[in-house]
Amino acid sequence: MTSPMSKRSLLKLAGLATLAASASLVGCGKKDAAAAPEAASGASAAAAAAPAGPLKIAFAYVGPVGDAGWTYAHNAGRLAVEKEFGDKVKTTFVEKVPEGPEAERVIRDLVGQGNTLIFGTTFGYMEPMLKVAADSKDVKFEHATGYKTAPNMRTYDSRTYEGAYMAGVIAGGMSKSGVLGVVGSIPIPEVIRNINSFTLGAQSVNPKIKTKVVWVNAWFDPPKETEGAQSLINQGADVLFQNTDSPAVLQTAEKAGKYAFGWDSDMTQFGPKAHLASSVINWGPYYIKATKDVLEGTWQTGGVWWGVKEGAIDIVAISDKVPAELKAKVDTVKAGLKDGSFVIWKGPILGQDGKEALAKDAVADDKFLGGINFYVKGVDGAVPSSK
Asked: Where are the beta strands (DSSP E) in the chain?
């Protein structure tokens, strides 16, 4: 990975009156780093004595489990672990843990409670977890979206750009105006990569597609997300996408008679007429693997970045409004991502300025993907600074 970006802070809960969900929503902590985790290779195994009694596992969440997005998806992964291992494990979680000093206090407390496998689910927990890991050698730590490791701490992430590309395939075929809109959160490589992948997917169906972006500079802010979505509609966008955490964009599209997608989890219920599909993260497979590693004494440090191939990314609940030929194209892309026969970031790919960003037949490696700070051709506007 390359240099880290600014931390993502816990965002104020506000504007929930516009949401259809009965549970509160909150921002999900994701990576603000400019690079992707590297695959673990040659990593030394950490000491792995078999636990006495059930393995105690703890999860630290930046938001509430009912947020309908990021934390909801992580908690679904925790439940998958319970279902898979039964009485061999005992899981617990703490929700709405702020990044920074408070996170360190909570993580130390989880160690004190006897948990020997601890997951931290936001980028801002990285430094606190490293500090606690240094003092707790017998505990295994797992950090979502980070890039720093220790002998007893590894990182994990999901290839959300794969879901964004598949959503783009649908959007490119469903748009009548030829203009797509994206409500962006914070202009870090992760989000820029998703916007570009969404656009590339759409252009694979309609090469003339244009994408407009409105940045709200927040991961969770329903009023700003609503305002951003409406602005995009006013600019001619008839299909909306998001890299924010609430259903506000989908709800805005529903009210305006436009189309949109769910993000991180199935958001159909928030705008059933507008909903075309949801790009989702399934943390279950990785959480099950990590738990199995500890139970079997095979846990190793390093980094993992999982996608469709590993069952971590999918596009679900595709609407009946989507024509069969578009669904078939999505199925083909998904199958190709799963078996490795299809690559999203393969040249030639041009930047917004018309210059070659990726040469013909060149395949982007994870370092390239982790440092993307430019728009591809077809995305309007300038990439703002994340600082």
From this structure: 55-60, 89-94, 117-120, 140-144, 153-158, 179-184, 210-215, 239-242, 259-264, 275-281, 303-306, 313-316, 349-350, 356-358
Beta bridge partners of residue 59, listed in sequence order: 93, 119
The CA-CA-CA angle for residues 58, 61, 64, to 5°, reads: 125
Q: Are residues 230 and 124 in the same domain?
A: no
Query: Would you say 174 and 326 are in contact if contact means Cβ atoms under 8 Å apart?
Result: yes
Separation of alpha carbons 11 and 191, rounded Å: 18
172 versus 10: the higher-pLDDT residue is 172
Q: Between residues 123 and 353, which one has the greater pLDDT?
A: 353
**Claim: this prediction has a pTM higher than 0.85:** no
> Considering the chain, what percentage of its residues have pLDDT values greater than 90?
76
Nearest Cα residue to 363 out of 342, 338, 377: 342
Q: Is the peptide bond before 323 cis (omega within 30 degrees of 0)?
A: no
- Whether 262 and 359 share a structural domain: yes
Of 78, 61, 58, residue with least CA distance to 24: 61
Higher per-residue pLDDT: 8 or 157 = 157
> Over the stretch 72-110, which tens digit does the pLDDT of each residue have?
999 999 999 999 999 999 999 999 998 889 999 999 999
- Whether 171 and 237 map to the same domain: the answer is yes
Q: Residue 97 is encoded by which pair of tokens? A: 């843990």
The whole-chain average pLDDT of the chain stands at 88
Compare 276 and 122 and report the one with higher pLDDT.
276
Q: What is the CATH number of the domain that holds 291?
A: 3.40.50.2300
Q: Do 94 and 29 share a structural domain? A: yes
Q: Are 27 and 10 in contact (CB under 8 A)?
A: yes
Strands 55-60 vs 117-120: parallel, antiparallel or unpaired: parallel
DSSP string across 164-210? HHHHHHHHHHH-SSSEEEEEE-S-SHHHHHHHHHHHHHHHTT-TT-E
Which residue type does 281 have? I
Domain of residue 266: give its range: 160-281+313-370
